[in-house]
Design goal:
single chain, eight-stranded mixed β-sheet, alpha/beta, globular
């Protein structure tokens, strides 16, 4: 038994497989550890988040549903190019490219991404864009797998024809794309320095391991880039 920060309830955490990052569920809301960790960090840094302007890129799962339900200034986007033009509405999200957003300068208090940065072909542009749209005092709160003890492995790079693979293609599941999302980078210890070099902002990592809050598994860090 423990307490889930996503559904704000006493609950039972259930291991449904060996890969705890994706298979250690809250029995009530079905959240997984990285959802719970990100919610804890948001609560600690911005306890007034329901009254802030929050934008989430590529929302999914009970965490995103919680933000949409409880934050009156919440908006969300998916990468839907070329089917949907940038900035256009598509259901309850807009189409946005994190590398070139249509959001106004200094219009967002908190920008959230969950396991997105490993799929970006030009993450340096995304870091600059996020810094541009954040208000002073705002933050980018995000999760991304980081392989500690090694440097970042670049698996693919942009090319004139789209993508040039440097390693055998690897894909992660994507609720929007049935083919999955290409893994472009396996981030290493240099992630924080990369973001600072790209946009000039400082990033802090929050590691977690707390079974009482359902926090266990691989790649369980939350990153916060502050403006």
């Amino acid at each position: 038994m423990g307490f889930c920060p996503v559904c704000d309830s006493r609950t039972l955490f259930v291991e449904e497989g060996p890969w705890l990052r994706d298979q250690y569920f809250c029995a009530r809301c079905h959240s997984i550890p990285r959802y719970r960790a990100l919610t804890i960090v948001l609560n600690e840094i911005f306890p007034n988040w329901p009254s802030l302007t929050i934008h989430e890129g590529s929302p999914s799962g009970p965490t995103s549903a919680k933000f949409r339900r409880e934050c009156r200034g919440y908006s969300a986007s998916q990468y839907l190019l070329p089917r949907v033009p940038r900035g256009a509405q598509a259901g309850d999200v807009t189409c946005q490219d994190l590398e070139s957003m249509t959001l106004p300068d200094e219009s967002i208090d908190v920008l959230i991404t969950q396991d997105v940065f490993e799929h970006l072909l030009r993450p340096e542009l995304a870091a600059k864009e996020i810094a541009r749209v954040l208000r002073p005092g705002g933050a980018h709160i995000f999760t991304v797998p980081v392989y500690r003890g090694r440097s970042t492995l670049v698996r693919a790079v942009p090319s004139d024809t789209g993508v040039r693979h440097l390693e055998s293609p690897d894909y992660h599941g994507n609720p929007v794309d049935p083919d999955g999302s290409l893994v472009v980078r396996e981030w290493g210890d240099d992630l924080v320095d990369f973001i600072t070099a790209s946009c000039g902002l400082t990033t802090e990592a929050y590691p977690f391991h707390d079974r009482a809050r359902g926090l266990d598994g691989e790649f369980l860090e939350v990153f916060v880039t502050r403006k």
